[in-house]
User: Fold this.
Amino acid sequence: MRGLRVGLVVSVVSMFVGAGAAVPAVAGVAGCVDTSVGLTVEEQRLARDVPQEILRRAGFDSVASGFLRDLCRAHSYRGAERVVAEHGQRLWRRAVDRAQGRGAPGGDLSRDDDRPLYWARLGMTGALRQWRPGFELSDAAREKLLDGLERASRGQDTIRLQGDGKRVKRVLVTGFDPFTLDRDIRISNPSGATALALDGTTVRTDAGLVKIETAVFPVRWGDFADGMVERALRPHLPRADLFTTVSQGRVGRIDIERYNGAWRGGFPDNENLSSTGLIPVSDPGSQPQWTVTTLPYQDIVAAPTGRFPVYDNTQVTEIPAGATDPVVRPDGPTEGSAARSGGGGDYLSNEIAYRATLLRDRLDLDIPGGHVHTPVLQFGASNTDPATGTVTDPEFVRNRVDIIDQVRSIVLVAAEAS
Assistant:
């Protein structure tokens, strides 16, 4: 790929390239790394040229090495917990600050870029996976540390919906990691970029102040089956005045998804794993086939929010009651039908919308909430081939910034309408 360079010594992430990899000399970590421990599919991608360039050009190439040095100085499990929490939250705050223009950008990648957060996190999880402490550490204890690192570095444990909901409207927004990385490892996710741009912001509108808190979620079936969405959102939805999950959807358009279906379609996730069947929930005996948005979609569609057209998307795929074959319905599900695809599809975009709105209903909350599907983030016309293209270009940046700005406008329209 043109213009790419690999950081070999300056970044510890280059150490984590798979089981049996040699570890370069890095001060303070000798003897505390076991490279015979295998890495995940996501973590193994980190050794490739593009992730290394993204980290270097954002100034995030030393994140994992600093984390590992402090981890190797931990002499107890409690000490390791502190290191994980501090470095995880620090990474999230650093990514948010960069996106919102605070501090030096650290490199020449545009501030709106969500990819440094994603790749730096994988450097940290790889380091934690191959860390060999000087004390006994069970597999379960290591998994607990990994879970803590995921939550902290995704903003999930620093959501603060303060206020009474009268003078300040409290809004919760979620985004996603990049995905389909084996198709194009350069890919960015505008929903994750939007989360970074909006986290902790307060906006004055005609309806008063709007305070926005955000978090980012992985593109992994297993984390959703384990209840990550519910654990992150349950403490905060009762205090929210509005929420929306956000993900990347279709080319050239934004969709407000009216219906969410209880079905997984099996498309491979970021670990190249598939899952097909009913969405696993904590109480399957009372699981509905469909949930419905309560976002003010009519107001959103009618408002001039940006350059991309916005649609109230009501199409679903269902198996009608008493039938065996799936049918596409343009105007929503029919009574008693089984879900096969919500408006947002049958992937994790649909699933996070389903889980969040089901949680809203199970908590008996009368608040607006639903899903916004952004346009697909596209590279410039001369930069579409991942084999020869560059990691960024002016049109790519403009598209991402425009999507961020339009989602922000949609959130504010929804808040004012509510």
